[in-house]
Amino acid sequence: MNAIETTGLTRRFWRHTAVDHIDLTVPTGTVNVLIGANGAGKTTLLKTMLNLLPPSAGHARVLGTDSRRLAPAELRRIGYVSENQKPPDHLTVAGLMAYWRPLYPQWDRTLEAKLLRNFDLPLDRKLGQLSRGMAMKAALASVLAYRPELLVLDEPFSGLDPLTRDQLVEGMLDLVSREGCTVLVSSHEIAEVETLADRLILLDHGHLKLTETADALRARFRQVEVSGTSVSVPARVWQMKREGTFTRYIDPQFDLHTTPAGARVTPLPLREIFIALLRQHSTTRPTGAIAS
Ligand SMILES: Nc1ncnc2c1ncn2[C@@H]1O[C@H](COP(=O)(O)OP(=O)(O)OP(=O)(O)O)[C@@H](O)[C@H]1O
Fold it and tell me: Which parts of the sequence belong to the ABC transporter domain (predicted)?
């Protein structure tokens, strides 16, 4: 069962195609991290998926319903937070919780209190007077408190201090492990999502370039260092540098049989795999495809 399925999902702004024929599945109960350079189309994809922006072509199914027909009953099962959302400035933090609470029968007041405490939010401060990070925390608390089945977060870490980022990751992991929640999160903060990601989705210029599990990525990527600067290396390798008396590269399809004898082979953390994918991709525009 998939929490999200898109078929040919496309969104144009006049003549610019921001999201181009995306066929994507997000399996239920997985944590998916959407990455891509600035302007790759991440925000547009998330909004188009949820029909916050109507698709120009194609369609999306969210929790089994065509996103154009998402009614309050389905929306209660989805939590969406974006850094671009404008909260109602006149409400206080406590007022925001009181405003949303009756709309969600499953709202968990104990969890709400815990989130507000952990996020150290001033309950009587008006939303319009919160800092950017505090406003993000208030928005996150107001969606985590109803334990959504699907959590869609657009750049949730932006503007948050490191402690709060950790608490947010903890809050998400708690939701995922206890409720089997599905998470789709776009982020440039790759260190933060290292512990979270089950699956990685890479967008480039509106195109879906890769969807793969974190385990598969960890299994196929290796940093390789070989003594000597004239060793022959497989053609598929990335970021090859011949420095001093060493040759170093990243192998995106590691295979011992085609690795030079005596090479030092090191697994890469997901964070470095993200960076390698983004860097590789930015050097192969506009048509380069990532080997997978
Ligand atoms: N309302 C709009 N009108 C015209 N063009 C838009 C609009 N919204 C987005 N775009 C364009 O669509 C493309 C994708 O934008 P989007 O905000 O989805 O990218 P992103 O990957 O979320 O970027 P970032 O990482 O910088 O937040 C960009 O070229 C952007 O200029």
Answer: 4-230
The CA distance from 55 to 11, in Å, is 5
Ligand 1 site-directed mutation target among 9, 14, 16, 56, most atoms within 8 Å of CB: 16
| Closest among 177, 133, 126, 129 to 158, alpha carbons compared | 133
Tokens 């049989």 sit at which residue? 257
- The predicted complex's ipTM stands at 0.98
| Tokens found for residue 15 | 């003549």
Closest by alpha carbon to 281, among 40, 2, 33?
A: 40
* H/E stretch holding 18: strand 16-27
First to last CA, the chain: 24
Q: What 8-state DSSP symbol labels residue 23?
A: E
Measured in angstroms, how far is the CA atom of residue 58 from the centroid of ligand 1? Answer: 19
The pLDDT averaged over each successive group of 10 residues in the chain (292 residues) is: 96 96 96 92 97 96 96 94 82 94 94 90 92 87 93 88 84 80 88 83 94 94 90 88 90 91 92 87 49 33
Sequence-separated (6 or more) residues with CB below 8 Å from residue 236? 251, 252, 253, 291
pTM of the model: 0.90
User: Is the CB of 187 within 6 Å of ligand 1?
Assistant: no
